[in-house]
Amino acid sequence: MKDVTFRQHTLSSGLQIVAECNPNAYSTGMAYFVKTGARDETPDISGVSHFLEHMVFKGTPTRTAEQVNQQLDQIGSQSNAFTSEEQTVYYCAVLPEYQLEALELLSDILRPLLRQGDFDTEKHVILEEIAKYDDQPPFGAHEKALAYHFQDHPLAKSVLGTRETVSALTREQMLEYFNRRYSAGNIVLAMAGNIDFEAVVAQVESQTSHWENYNTHRDTPRANPNSGFYSIEKPSAHQQYIIQISNGPAAEDKNRYASRLLGLIFGDENNSRLFWDLIDTGKAEYAVVEPSEYQGTGIFLSYICCQPENTSEILDLYQKLARDIQEHGVTQEELELAKSKVCSHIVLRAERAASRMFSIGNNWVQRGEYTSIQQSIERFQNVTVSDIAEVLEKYPLTQCTSVAIGPTRIEHK
Amino acid sequence: MQSMPWLESAAISVLVPAGSQRDPSELPGLASFTAEMVQRGCGNLNSRQFVDELDRLGAARSASVTNSHTRFSAAVPSSRLEETLAIYRDLLRSPHLPEAQLEDSRMVAMQELLAMEDDLAQKLLRELRLRLYPDPYGRGTTGSPESVQAISHRDVASHVEDYYVPENSIISIAGKIEFEAVTSIIENLFGDWEGALQSDIYQTPPRDGHHHIQHESSQTQIGIVYPSVPYSHPDYFLARSAIGILSDGMSSRLFTEVREKRGLCYTVYAMCHTIKEEGCVLAYAGTTTDRAQETLDVMLAEIRRLGDGVFEDELKRLKARMKTGLIMQQESSSSRSISMASDWHLLGYVRTLEELSDILDKVNTESINQYLSDHPPQQFKVVTLGQHALDTSGVNGGGEA
């Protein structure tokens, strides 16, 4: 078996290419990670990053939207895109023989034409997407919780925007945003799987040499988080949905390995403290906690769904469990179990080239580093009980912003 | 079994014929309730040890109830396969079914029922399914609050006795495995497993007509079904290709006409749905109230237009997508083990990836168009959920046919 190698190259335009080349892979995964998202928006253009993500598929000076869609299908690709608070990612998984064609297409669409007619039609699709999430649990409570938690921090902003902000957006505002954020130096091309790296570099170099490189500075302050309880009434809902957010390690913090394990021990979906007290007993439909890391700051995010009449009891139980882990930490046994779970899952997930590509891209964008599967496993294995205690001390799970949404308002102290 | 020596993992799917189609008619939801109970300890392991042991083995796992089976799936690093299989052997053959945990399980089932009330797409699909197939094949898996309340420990125990049996059970394994070694492990664990399926299935016809579910939601959910062929039918891949052209990929007809050109919705799709005995086509869209009628009309027009045939370039794109899908299945032991189990259930044998690839090569526009002209989409049933019912009077030709 030929070995897996990591390759990296920065083009003259400032665009970076990172790739984990595995000559034995059946497919090739590739993605452009643009370091832009809701946190880079001003309130008047809230939702523009996500709307622009849709518009990128709508064609270029040399391709119509229909041609883009047809060609993506012609090469048999599995492709899509997503937008978060700080990234917009365009990805594609193909058989190795189509990698250069797929790359040509992806590179081309990253300089979209933004035709007015397409903009007007696609706005309806975005509004439909907003309406869809309006109807779907937790009915917008996720965005509300982030807004309450982060207050005036840039991460308080909603990715989708609102009906009002999206309706009011103009093509000119989107173009201005594009020109401010889609600098070559603000973009990383990440690949994994069966890759002809030299050919990739040569092609991307020649195709993107005209991409401009300019300053795309983003402020990454630590959050100064809020805490408190907010209840929202949604008369058509049957269940109560509770989102709780507490402060957590940032993307660049070393103790993020410990925080991942803490998340599993406290709130894994099928074997954790929350699971045994809330799910196994049927008190709640689900109860999970996971850390989320951003540049400069991070959070622990918990999702609970329960019967409305039990909300106060569940919130009290959650606080009791949080206090308990806060005071006594975790046991060696819990830690070892969490490690074996997480390490096995790293290996299983890596079997798909596309999922490996996401880890590599994300790691490079957030930290500018490459971590092999073996290194990731070692870092998890090295975490100790006292590392977890340190995370808990720095980032208490007990201090959180809670938002409950359900059929009736909840009074909770 | 399929050996995939390039992987590090091995995945198993274990199916027992305890699907919702076997639920007693007065106790819908019993299969789901039972699946919850069998995971609360088995063999030498109590409830917590069972979960800890699977975590120690690093098993990425799931359990689900379908209409035909209860399925337990797990993927592990291949060196842990034997230990993992031994746990699932105990789960099937010696579950503890702890009586003390019956009420907890009941609460779990109730939570699931309540959560489904908030999942509007699921709510729509449940109603649609009742119109797809005769009962019990159209039946959902969660039951009703009344039936979940009524289930006793005795019901659960006898359900295990009747349906956690080798007849119609399937064990499918894919990944880094050696046939002989795994065969002898399975022989050891399951060789002396005995039991036959007890009851016969009595069918009653599916629900008829269109239906509207009143709900104060921003979007109207639209579901359309019409009859097609099951997976085992010689024409299945012709029907499947036509629906692929209608709905697979960003250049498909529905995506282009409903979303790209008109911006009517965010989600729209159609798919071939199949059980062993029958097949149908199911289409779905979610759209805001005042645009729902237009969405329904455009969807139906596109579905009917299939009857006029498909084009060469459309098929070429579809085949590229399907081929990629087949090859990428080799990257995942889990998806391979699940599709092998499904083949075994629907066909009585497993189609290899080479066979599937050959079948795809033989599909051409002439054969698809012949099929579509012989079997034009018709006999639609429409279910909607939202603020207003839609006009469905013209759905089946408005009295013409």
Key phrases:
heterodimer, A: alpha+beta, Cytochrome Bc1 Complex, Chain A, domain 1, 2 domains, five-stranded mixed sheet, 13 strands, B: 401 residues, alpha+beta, globular
Topology:
The complex is a heterodimer of chains A (413) and B (401).
Chain A: E1 5-10, E2 16-21, E3 28-34, H1 48-56, E4 59-60, E5 63-64, H2 65-74, E6 78-83, E7 88-94, H3 99-109, H4 116-134, H5 141-150, H6 163-168, H7 171-181, E8 187-193, H8 197-208, E9 228-233, E10 240-248, H9 256-267, H10 273-279, E11 284-293, E12 298-306, H11 311-328, H12 332-349, H13 353-367, H14 373-381, H15 385-394, E13 400-406
Parallel strand pairs in A: 2-8, 9-13
Antiparallel strand pairs in A: 1-2, 3-7, 3-8, 4-5, 6-7, 10-12, 10-13, 11-12
Helix pairs in contact in A: 1-7, 3-8, 9-12, 9-15, 10-11, 12-14
Chain B: E1 2-3, E2 9-16, H1 30-38, E3 41-42, E4 45-46, H2 47-56, E5 60-65, E6 70-77, H3 81-93, H4 102-117, H5 120-132, H6 145-150, H7 153-163, E7 170-175, H8 179-190, E8 211-214, E9 219-228, H9 236-247, H10 253-260, E10 267-274, E11 279-288, H11 292-305, H12 312-328, H13 333-347, H14 353-362, H15 365-374, E12 381-386
Parallel strand pairs in B: 1-7, 8-12
Antiparallel strand pairs in B: 2-6, 2-7, 3-4, 5-6, 9-11, 9-12, 10-11
Helix pairs in contact in B: 1-4, 1-7, 3-8, 9-12, 9-15, 10-11, 12-14
